[in-house]
Amino acid sequence: QAQLVESGGGLVQPGGSLRLSCAASGNFFGISDMGWYRQAPGKERELVGAASSSGTTNYADSVKGRFTISRDNAKNTVYLQMNSLKPEDTAVYYCNAQIWYRDGSRRPYWGQGTQVTVSS
Questions:
Q1: In whole angstroms, what is the distance from residue 77 CA to residue 22 CA?
Q2: Phi and psi for 87 in degrees, rounded to 5?
Q3: What's the burial of 74, exposed, middle or buried (CB within 10 Å: 0-12/13-18/19+)?
Q4: What is the pLDDT of residues 84-94, one digit of tens each?
Q5: Under a CB-based contact definition with an 8 Å cutoff, are residues 18 and 116 in contact?
Q6: What is the pLDDT of residues 61-116, one digit of tens each?
């Protein structure tokens, strides 16, 4: 079993910044990819960005240059630094991790979601 706990969401003004955290805990062998998705009301869930265990990152075009994903592998934690926030960034943000177990299995896990609202 494993669980992902997210934190850092909230209400910010346009142009502001916010930092989300996602920490994995439980009995597992390791974590391969970790990333962030978001879902706005009436829209489908979309990939924001992801990071491999080696630190390679990829981002959606809509957030390039504004968002940064980083990992602290010692803490099994991934971060999403969001700068120059826009109203269209408003969504529930979900952490995702691909977790390896000692028996050789790999399963995806999701965080509980955290609300990010960008509004004046």
A1: 5
A2: -55, -35
A3: exposed
A4: 999 999 999 99
A5: yes
A6: 999 999 999 999 899 999 999 999 999 999 999 999 999 998 999 999 999 999 99
The CA distances from residue 61 to 5, 66, 94, in Å, are 26, 10, 18
- Pairwise CA distance, residues 120 & 15, whole Å: 10
Considering Cα of 22, then 75, then 26, then 98, what sign does the dihedral take? positive
Question: Measured between alpha carbons, how far is residue 39 from residues 28, 54, 63, 64, 112 in Å?
Answer: 28, 27, 14, 18, 13
- Which alpha helices (H) appear in the chain, and where do they start and end? none
